[in-house]
Design a protein that fits this description.
This protein is mainly α and 219 residues long. The chain has 11 helices and 3 strands. Strand 1, helix 9 and strand 2 form a beta-alpha-beta unit.
């Protein structure tokens, strides 16, 4: 709920990660999810993702390792899914940006971004230059919905800020993925605002009734 209220666009993109909640056998799956969650907590997942400082939360791409580990070699081959090693991403980020601080508002675009490993490296490089990644625009395309969902999670964990647009689709077949994602993002924020406005009105009416009953209780 908190993620939806702040970032309904990223919350919607994360939906494939929650798909199991509407599938058959949800009780059995919930038990397995709980066991995996407990194991992750016991072995220190929060040491990687739980810091209040986004720089410390951006040391690794947990979503990439998770998704890659849960898929068979054959599945990865079928999807053509080969995540770029973090060391290579860091070298590419250093070459792309260099030592000169890029102008605020610069747009970084990744047409086949996976879970966003290149963005993680870029964000960390910007921080080494004493810059805030939230001052830049991050546009990512990804074909596979689960990986795109992982990128949405990472955008929040890594503190990429409000200017993140994640599109899901074939960027070779469709050249308008980002434009479509921007329109969807705008519509999701407008829908959120309408829902929050209605919720606030209902709450205001409830409080007014409660106040009226305290002032003039019914017989």
């Amino acid at each position: 709920m908190h993620t939806w209220a702040r970032r309904p666009d990223l919350g919607a993109r994360m939906a494939p990660l929650m798909g199991w909640l509407t599938e058959d056998g949800v009780q059995e799956k919930a038990h397995a999810v709980r066991r995996v969650t407990e194991t992750a907590l016991r072995h220190g997942i929060l040491q990687l993702t739980g810091s209040p400082d986004p720089c410390h939360r951006s040391g690794t791409d947990v979503m990439s390792w998770t998704i890659t580990s849960l898929r068979s070699h054959g599945a990865r081959q079928g999807l053509g899914e080969y995540h770029t090693p973090p060391e290579l991403c860091e070298a590419m980020a250093a070459l792309l940006v260099g030592d000169e601080p890029p102008q605020k508002g610069r747009r970084f675009h990744e047409p086949a971004g996976g879970t966003g490993g290149m963005f993680r490296a870029l964000a960390q490089h910007l921080r080494r230059l004493h810059l805030d990644p939230a001052d830049y625009v991050w546009a990512l395309n990804e074909l596979e919905p689960i990986a795109a969902a992982g990128a949405a999670v990472n955008a929040i964990v890594w503190g990429l800020g409000p200017n993140v647009v994640i599109a899901c689709g074939d960027s070779l077949a469709r050249g308008d993925l980002q434009e479509r994602a921007v329109r969807e993002r705008r519509a999701l924020f407008e829908e959120r605002d309408r829902i929050l406005a209605r919720t606030a009105m209902v709450e205001a009416v409830r409080e007014a009734r409660a106040l009226a009953e305290r002032i003039a209780p019914t017989a």
